Amino acid sequence: AFLGPPEVNITSCPNCINVTIKLPTSHLRHQGKLQSLIDIYGELYYDITLKSLDGEHKRPRQITTKEVFSTVIEELYPSRNYCVSVVVTASLNKYFIPSPWKCVTADSEARQGYHEVAVVGAVCVALIIAAVLKCVHAAGFILPKVSLPHTLV
Description:
Layout: E1 7-13, E2 16-22, E3 29-30, E4 33-34, H1 37-41, E5 44-52, E6 55-58, E7 62-64, E8 68-73, E9 81-89, E10 102-105, H2 114-139
Antiparallel strand pairs: 1-2, 2-8, 3-4, 5-6, 5-7, 5-9, 9-10
């Protein structure tokens, strides 16, 4: 029986990507209950292949004992597109189907939080302008309260 393909989702983080992997479902039942691959094998190996402009790089093999797990691939170039494919194997089963390629662009450090900083900065500038206008108005430079001569009243 072939293992796979696993379900893979990736999200970007600063100079890295976060890979979430869900093991493939098995079709084996024990006493009417569907068995997970962890129930059957105890532990599984997973290999992540990372593809970018530089070509394909196979990451070191890892072990998992969980149905759903995440791993972070760090030290990536910011604003560059990366794709990953994952295979799951067991010590007793070397037959596998790799996951389809999933792609994402790694975030840059500078872009993280930029939106929040811009919003906070705009609010601060607006408050400063409002305070200055209030002071100038109170001092009588804008819309001064001129009392009209009695003849015009």
